[in-house]
Amino acid sequence: MHEFTKTLLKVLTNTHFMLTQKKPFQNMKWLFRLYSSFSINYLLEHE
Predict the structure, then answer these.
(1) Taking CA 28 as the corner, what is the angle to CA 26 and CA 31, rounded to the nearest 5 degrees?
(2) Which residues contact 7 (CB under 8 A, 6 or more apart)?
(3) CA–CA gap between residue 38 and residue 47 (Å, rounded)
(4) What is the pTM of this model?
(5) How far apart are the first and last CA of the chain?
(6) Do residues 27 and 16 make contact, with C-beta atoms less than 8 angstroms apart?
(7) What does the pLDDT look like over 6-46, one tens digit per residue?
(8) CB burial class (10 A; 0-12, 13-18, 19+) of residue 8?
(9) Number of helices (H), then strands (E), in the chain
(10) C-alpha angle 8/27/46, rounded to 5°?
(11) Hey, what's the torsion of the CAs at 19, 6, 4, 10, to 10 degrees?
(12) Distance from the CA of 30 to the CA of which of 3, 14, 38, 41 falls in 20 to 30 A?
């Protein structure tokens, strides 16, 4: 994994836990979707 990707994931995860302690599973899905779409865009741009 790129350093950039690792950092981004860390930030997203931290934000996610701070904002949403109440509904972890729902938010995990949201986080995963966000990260997936970001990853796809990032990979497409940096081929």
Answers:
(1) 115
(2) none
(3) 14
(4) 0.36
(5) 14
(6) yes
(7) 888 888 777 777 666 666 667 677 778 888 888 888 878 87
(8) middle
(9) 2, 0
(10) 30
(11) 20
(12) 3
Sign of CA dihedral 20, 26, 32, 33: negative
Query: Which of helix, strand or coil describes residue 2?
Result: coil
Closest CA to 1 of 44, 39, 45, 41: 39
Joined together, the tokens standing for residue 33 give 């979707």
C-beta of residue 25 within 8 angstroms of C-beta of residue 18: no
C-alpha 10, offset from chain centre: 8
Q: Which two tokens stand for residue 4?
A: 């950039």
**For residue 22, what are its two tokens?**
């109440």
